[in-house]
Amino acid sequence: MAQKAQHNAQHETQHEAQHEAQHATHRTEHTITVAAAPEAVFGLVERAQDWPFVFPPSLHVEYLERSDDEERLRIWATANGEVKSWTSRRTLDRDGLRIRFRQEVSQDPVAAMGGEWIVEALPGGGSRVRLLHDFRAVDGLERNVNWILEAIERNSGAELAALESAALRTGTDEAPYTFEDSVRIDAPAQEVRDFLHDAGEWQERLPHVARVLLKEDTPDVQHLEMDTRTPDGSTHTTASVRICLPDGRISYKQLQTPALMSVHTGEWTVREIPSGCVAVSRHTVVVNAAAVTKVLGADATTADARTFIRDALGGNSTITMRHAKEYAEQRARSEPVPPAEYASIQRFYARQMRLLDEGEGDAWADTFTEDGAFDQSSFAEPVRGRAAIAAAVRGRPAAPAGTVRRHWLGLPAAWRFPDGSVRTGYDALVLSTAAGAAPQIRLSTSCQDVLVADGGEDGDGDGVRAGDGTGWLVKHRYVGHDGQ
């Protein structure tokens, strides 16, 4: 009995020890002194969307919820060479220069993690930054604890050092700078997104890519290594992590950059427009000032480096988007608009412009679908619905007495999309002619429409009424004003 009691006591002691280990909370603290104002340092920590080009481990951050002092974030970052993702809640105390954070769902081997950023003003000027962590490891295993401690040590040191560098370069030529390039594509957005997503095919599809290696061990997290040709014929190697987001965006960060850049992040976005889509390439870069003269020559400046990088990255991105355009448009236009259908579209536009010039606003609005939309580059929001479109036409300022306004429309390009609609693109001018004066161009525009067949009687059921040009309705029109 004594032996059994002793055995039970030992078992209970072991069980208690295991339970204590599994639920043990470990704490760490890392600090750094920064020669910058506390408010400036706090701002760098507060702006989570900027972390990828401030903190080396950070890859991408998405805001899920935001209020004045509460935030919910989805974060992707590297830890001990692995890409991890989690959702965190943050509480911001701007007056106290504190930000508390707590992971909602952690990734193995982390069972739970939280902490706090604290920025303190120093008496002699500058700031002291304290980064606190508390965590529990999965099952309390020693190897898991050690893995987490190693990741915290590596990442916290890198983040605090990067925070100091970012604070010191604020307002200088070495601060991050962002630029964009875009290409309009007459094809469905998904075709373009597929082209950008399938980077493993770029060696065959893009002339400036000499070699590419793509791995996707975790869904929607891609590791991309690529050799890119430069205009002088040489090549440079880059290594990136790409986060493929549910809305089709691809956010990436280069882990291995060319010598002239210390940080390079980017994002591919494909935005729907009535006639297809617009692909946008966005880059944020930090120049490596120490490499400027080595790479560009003894007299080169940081401004020269920015121009060089802008031309190189923008040029390659534009080449990529133009090849995506060619690829997507070839696939989208597999069914050309037949001649009879094209002629009916021309008749439709001839009638529609005549209605507008003759002041028949209600009849002109009837050429849109009941839920149709009319948008212009000068509008904050599109006008939606046939009734609202009619009211907008009636509310237009009248031409001065004795002045005639005419709408001139160039020959439209037209193609059928896989969803059955017809997309058109055309140029249009608004001419204004005062009595006794020469005509003047009041507006020069580029337009894109989504047309659908009118459901009215057409005799053969193909949605095209013979001869009268009323076989179509505008579902969405976008008018881009030249010069805006």
Briefly say what this structure is.
This protein has helices at 2-22, 38-46, 142-169, 189-197, 202-205, 292-296, 302-332, 339-357, 361-365, 386-394; strands at residues 26-34, 58-66, 70-79, 82-93, 98-105, 110-121, 127-137, 177-185, 209-218, 221-229, 235-244, 250-256, 261-273, 276-287, 368-376, 383-384, 403-409, 413-416, 422-434, 440-453, 472-481.
What does the model show?
With 484 residues, this protein is of the alpha+beta class. 29% of the residues lie in helices and 41% in strands. It contains ten helices and 21 strands. The protein has helices at residues 2-22, 38-46, 142-169, 189-197, 202-205, 292-296, 302-332, 339-357, 361-365, 386-394, and strands spanning 26-34, 58-66, 70-79, 82-93, 98-105, 110-121, 127-137, 177-185, 209-218, 221-229, 235-244, 250-256, 261-273, 276-287, 368-376, 383-384, 403-409, 413-416, 422-434, 440-453, 472-481. The protein has a seven-stranded antiparallel β-sheet, covered by helices on one side. Strand 15 and strand 16 (383-384) form a beta hairpin. Helix 2 (38-46) packs across helix 3 (142-169) and helix 4 crosses helix 7. The protein is elongated, with a radius of gyration of 30 Å. The model is unreliable at 457-469 (pLDDT under 50).
